[in-house]
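User: Predict the structure for this protein chain, please.
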Amino acid sequence: MDHELGRRRVLQLFGLSAGAGVAAMRAADPVLAATLAYDEANGVSPGQYRAPSGLAKDSAAKDAALAWIDGNAESITRLSDEVWGFAELSLREWRSAQATAELLRRNGFRIEWGTGGFPAAFTATYGAGKPVLGFNVEYGALPGLSQQRGAGTHDPLVYNHDAYGPTYGAGHGDAHNALGAGATGAAIAVRHAMERHGLPGTLKVFGSTGEEQLVGKPFAVKAGAYEGLDAYLDWHPFAATLATWNTTSALASATFTFLGAAGHGGSPLGNKSGLDGALLMATMTEYLREKNVAPSGRFHYAIINGGGAPNVTPDMCSIWFFVREGSPARLTVLYDKIVAAAEAAAKASQTRLVHRFHAATWNSLGNKAAAELADENMRKIGPPQFSVEDQRLARALQKSLGRPEVGLPTQLVPLTPPPAAFLGGPSTDAADVSWRTPKVTVLAATFPPGIPHHNWAVTSAAATGIAHKGLLSAAKYLAATAVDLLTQPEVLAAIRKEFEERTAGANWKSLIPDGTQPPLYEPPADFLRATGQQWPPSGVTWPPPPVVSTEQLGSTGPELRPGI
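Assistant: Here is the predicted structure, written as structure tokens:
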């Protein structure tokens, strides 16, 4: 994208003229400006940027960390495949969390369960003193994305027969099994290097639950779980391999439940349909898109309980919305419009609305200096080396989904600045962490180009050599970068300096209102015993108050006498 053209689009998003400067952008929206205007103010443009060299240093400690990954590749990929097989949904990753924590415990980390009040979350710690480095670990699967491993066509591993509505089981369609295993391997490798070479510092591995629902980390950050970090290292499975300091979308999650009065579908007069309320809301929000949603905005939804049979008017129906925008301020404006549509839909359908806010997260704050350090380490280590069989599976998956059969990438993507205009995209609950401490972000190829996240084809690749090679490369990228942060205080200081400059005037405040109880599921008794936890967590009301329809049937007016 032409830089000046992109800059004009940014200014238009802010409602500013083409002659406006960085100061005006910061005044309009200091949060989004921190991710875009900072680079412009420092003369960084996509067309002129060249990644620097000389940041990543070879060292015996780094060699030891990388050698540990090579020597323990089987145990790291075994964890990934084990979590893939569990395929546990967000906030219910009981076995996945235990398997991950156990590998860390066996390698010298101290485990504390219940981070942020979530039973499936943990913090694993090694070492003492400064610097303090955090690693992000996730292990949640997604509904409906079950798939046979390594199958090139859609073939669900778990298929649930129902004559009226068959469904698929859960699957790792975002490859969080690989994410968690790769980051775990990186942290253990750095721990090994620290012990062998006497490096001071503390490692903290945050086993995070509910990322697919954008829940775990926003509540944990609000509770202070991530305070005291000097840097936070994260990677995500992707269709290419690169470092980045791009931003993401801020996001709010909420359900809108419409309560009516049930009745027979064949005699519908007087019934009040919760499904009508949900459908009316969906329709109303669709009319927002042309004139009320900026290019950086998104919203999408799923109907949760739309009724069990056509001949029963459902007296309760929920519709779950994700709302996204480029910054918290912009998100709030769009979210309020969605809420107004829900209120209008309830009035029109003569139902009662129960609006339940679940969670929200900021947009990510990038860090150019951190990305440059990671990028140079990636160039030194090299891209994942995929086999002929990996390439064959990649092309089969691309063919099944009607994408060009180009196979897997064999090169790293060069480091480039974020686009001059942010036009929306995915979200991550690690975004809130990025406003509390500098964040290193790496992407590594674990599925083929042209395949979207949250697709069965990602699940297929996520337990094969494709994901294994990607996650082991990611583990090396993170480990090498972490060793540099431990051994080069001047590099860590530069990263911290940029973080402080970017956040000046854009003070983080959680988007979660005080007193909000997170969405939770009660863990199995054996999980609680194994992890030494009590249920419910402190401050949690359990069970939550039930949502029950108590609505009266509607009326069409006075009954008329027969024959009139």
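The CA atoms of residues 152 and 397 lie 5 Å apart.
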